[in-house]
Amino acid sequence: MIFPRLFRRRRRDYDYDEEYEQGGYYADLEEGEGEIEEELNLSDEEQAKHYAIDLCDQMIKAAKDIEDTRAEYDLVTSYLTDVQIIEDLTEDERKPIADCAAHVDRLGKERSEFLKTERRLSDSQFAQMQEEEDALPGIIKRLKSNEDYLDTVKRDMAFLEGKKLEWKLVKNDAVRTQRLMQKSACYLFLCYFTLMAFAVIVSWYMEMDLDLRLVMTILSLIAVLLGGYILIRYMDASTDLRKSNVNRNRAISLENHVKIKYVNIKNAVDYTCEKYHVRNSYELSYIYEQYQAEAKEKEKFRETSDELNYYTNTLLQYLNRLRMYDAKAWLNHANAIVDSRELVEMKHQLITRRQKLRTRMEYSKRTIANMKQEALVNIRRMGEVNPQLVQIIRQIDKMNLGRQ
Questions:
Q1: Measured distance between the N- and C-terminal CA atoms of the chain, rounded to whole angstroms
Q2: Are 386 and 51 in contact (CB under 8 A)?
Q3: Angle at 314 between CA 306 and CA 298, to 5 degrees
Q4: What is the Cα–Cα distance from 50 to 35, expressed in whole angstroms?
Q5: What is the pLDDT of residues 240-276, one digit of tens each?
Q6: Count of CA atoms in the C-beta half-sphere (13 A) of 399
Q7: What is the 3-state secondary structure (H, E, C) of the chain?
Q8: Dist. CA 336–CA 347, nearest whole Å
Q9: Which of 359, 402, 274, 306 minimizes the C-alpha distance to 103?
Q10: Contact in structure between 129 and 288 (CB atoms under 8 Å)
Q11: What is the pLDDT of residues 154-179, one digit of tens each?
Q12: CA distance 262 to 268
C-alpha cells in the first residue's frame, strides 16, 4: 500500500534521531530504498494527496482508539458510581449487605482452600471406598483376624515341623538301640557258651578241681542279669519306636490339616489385598481413615458450596435493589464491602485508571487535531480539492464531537 509507505517516509524525516537510536532506521532504509526512489518521482500534488489520505487513515484509527478508550472510561466510571453507592449507604442499609458479603468472602476462601488441598486418594480409590463404605469396617476386621490366624498357623506349623523332627530322631535312636541290643544279645550268648566250654575243658583236661556247678551258676546268673538288661533296653526301644511312629503320623496329619486351612485363609487375605490394592490390614485401615477424612472434607465443601450459593444470591438481590451497574462484579470483591479500607483502595485504583484513560483520550484528540491541520495543509497544496477527503475529515470531526 502506498499510504503506509508515504507515512513511514515522512516519519523518517521527522523522527530520524529516534529511529537511529532504536537501530531500525538503516534496516527500514535498506528495505524501502527502491520504494522511496519511486515515490520521489511523484509530483508535489500527488505526494500531498497521498500524504493527506494517509493522515486521514491515521485519524480514523485514532478516532476508533478514542472510541474504545471512551467505552472503557465509561465502564470505570460506572464502577466508581457503584463504589459511591456503597459508600453512601446508611449504617442500617449497609449492615445486612456487609453481613452477606462477609459470608461470601469467608466461604469463597474456604472453597478455594479446599480446591488447593492435595487429594489423599485417587478418584478410583475414593469411588471404591464409597461403594463399600458400610461393609469396610467388617472387611478390615475380618482381614485383621485372618492375618492373626495366619501368624498363629505359621507358628503351629513350625511347632509341628519341630515335633516331626523330634519324633524322627527318637525313632532313629530306638532303631539304633534295638540293633545294638540284638548284637549285644548275640555277643552275650556267644560269651556264655564260650566260658562254659572253657570251664569244662579246663576242669577235664587240666584235672583241676573246679566246681562246675558253681561256675555254671555264676555264669548263668551273669548271663541272666545281662540278658535282662538287654531285653529291657530292647523293649524300651520298641516302645519308643511305636510312640515315635504314632506321634509323627499324628503330627503329619495335623500339619496337613493346618496347611489346608492356611491355604484357604491365605487365598482370602491375598484376594482382599489385591482387591483394595494394599499389602495388609494396617494399610487398608489407613486408606479407610483417609477416605473418611476426605469424605468429611467433601461433605463440608458441598455444604460450603450450598451456603455460598445462598449468600451469593442474597447479596446479588441486595445489590440489584441498589440499581448498580454490575452487581456480579462485587462477588469477587466482597471483602471491599466488609472492609472500608479495601473499598478505599479499590476506589483509588479505579480513579487512577480513569485518569490514565482520560489522559490517553486527550492525547489522541490532540494527535487528531494536529493530523487534521496537516491534512488540510496538504489538501490546499493539491491542484483541486478532493471532496472525499474533506468528507472524511468532517466525519472524524462529528465522531470527536459525539464523544465530548
A1: 33
A2: no
A3: 10
A4: 14
A5: 888 888 888 887 888 888 888 888 888 988 888 888 8
A6: 21
A7: CHHHHHHHHHHHHHCHHHHHHHCCHHHHHHHCHHHHHHHHCCCHHHHHHHHHHHHHHHHHHHHHHHHHHHHHHHHHHHHHHHHHHHHCCCHHHHHHHHHHHHHHHHHHHHHHHHHHCCCCCCHHHHHHHHHCCCCHHHHHHHHHHHHHHHHHHHHHHHHHHHHHHHHHHHHHHHHHHHHHHHHHHHHHHHHHHHHHHHHHHHHHHCCCCCCHHHHHHHHHHHHHHHHHHHHHHHHHHHHHHHHHHHHHHHHHHHHHHHHHHHHHHHHHHHHHHHHHCCCCHHHHHHHHHHHHHHHHHHHHHHHHHHHHHHHHHHHHHHHHHCCCCCCHHHHHHHHHHHCHHHHHHHHHHHHHHHHHHHHHHHHHHHHHHHHHHHHHHHHHHCCCCCHHHHHHHHHHHHHHHHCC
A8: 10
A9: 306
A10: yes
A11: 888 888 888 888 888 888 888 888 88
A12: 10
Spatial distance between the Cα atoms of 66 and 69, rounded to a whole number of angstroms = 5
pLDDT in the model for residue 355:
92
Give the Cβ contact number of residue 159 at 10 Å: 14
Distance CA 328, CA 366 (A): 37
Cβ contacts of 293 within 8 Å, gap of 6 or more: 120
What CA–CA distance (Å, rounded) separates 255 from 401? 106
Three cell numbers, residue 49: 494527496
C-alpha cell of residue 120: 489423599
Cell triple for 202: 579246663
Written as nine digits, the cell of 179 is: 540293633
Report the distance separating Cα 191 and Cα 195, nearest Å: 6
Backbone angles phi, psi at 147, to 5 degrees: -65, -40
pLDDT bin (cut points 50, 70, 90) of residue 15 is very low
321 phi/psi in degrees, rounded to 5 = -65, -25
Neighbour-count burial of 387, counting CB atoms closer than 10 A to its CB (0-12 exposed, 13-18 middle, 19+ buried) = exposed
For residue 61, give the C-alpha cell: 484509527
